[in-house]
Specification:
Distance between the termini: 8 Å
Order of helices and strands: EEEEEEEEEEEEEEE
Number of helices: 0
Protein name: DUF6598 domain-containing protein
CATH topology of the largest domain: Immunoglobulin-like
Helix content: under 10%
Radius of gyration: 19 Å
CATH architecture of the largest domain: Sandwich
Domain DUF6598: 4-191
Number of domains: 2
Pfam family, one: DUF6598
Length: 215
């Protein structure tokens, strides 16, 4: 039975201007005791044509197979966008031990493509100084005329126990705030907005998630 390895996408949006193609490169290795013992698992350089998405945001998925693995590349093309840099702080209560917790974000026009910000596993989430939560991903692209949706879910034994979400409208600049009430704790969501200016890139390209299936 195969295993799935969830990978983290780029730290910031991949932007383009004029040229319709964006290239992605993924190099996965199985770590050995020494560098010489490392084994190649997946080597990929892929071109994605964005010409068809001139006026509408969309999501795509492609699979790439090799002798050792299958890599599924999921991507979202976000048009006329701003960048949202997300910070989440625990301001009241504590993260419940023994519960599976996830924080995700997406742009409202493509709600099924969620960027994973945090996955605690079956333990408490890591909380740093001042209640700041350690996110695995912090930046999401959002249409300037759209909405950023941040969602928190607590589950146990595969059953969803608590779900809370907030929607924030993009700003030209500055910060916006809201709260998430997840039962045993309250989380403050702070978003710093950065415009992608006309003439530098007009459109943003983000890779919300990718998955490698290890055979």
């Amino acid at each position: 039975m195969g295993q799935h390895l969830v990978l983290t996408g780029p730290a910031r949006a991949v932007v383009h201007e004029g040229h319709p193609s964006v290239y992605f490169e993924a190099i996965l290795k199985v770590k050995g005791a020494t560098c010489s013992e490392d084994r190649d698992l997946s080597l990929l350089i892929s071109r994605c044509n964005t010409r068809q998405s001139a006026s509408k945001s969309l999501v795509g998925t492609r699979c790439y197979r090799s002798k050792l693995s299958t890599l599924e590349l999921a991507y979202g093309i976000i048009v006329a966008c701003a960048e949202a840099t997300i910070r989440v702080e625990l301001v009241e209560g504590s993260w419940p031990e023994g519960f599976h917790g996830q924080l995700t974000a997406c742009t409202a026009s493509v709600p099924h493509m969620k960027v994973l910000l945090l996955d605690s596993g079956e333990k408490e989430a890591v909380v740093g100084d001042g209640g700041k939560m350690e996110l695995s991903r912090r930046v999401v692209s959002v249409e300037r005329s759209g909405q950023l949706v941040v969602c928190a879910v607590l589950s146990r034994g595969g059953e969803k126990v608590v779900e809370a979400e907030t929607s924030l409208a993009p700003l030209e600049a500055g910060r916006s705030h809201d709260m998430l009430d997840v039962g045993s704790c309250k989380l403050r969501v702070t978003v710093a907005w950065s415009p992608i200016l006309k003439g530098y890139p007009l459109r943003g390209f983000s890779l919300p998630s990718s998955e490698a299936v290890v055979s």
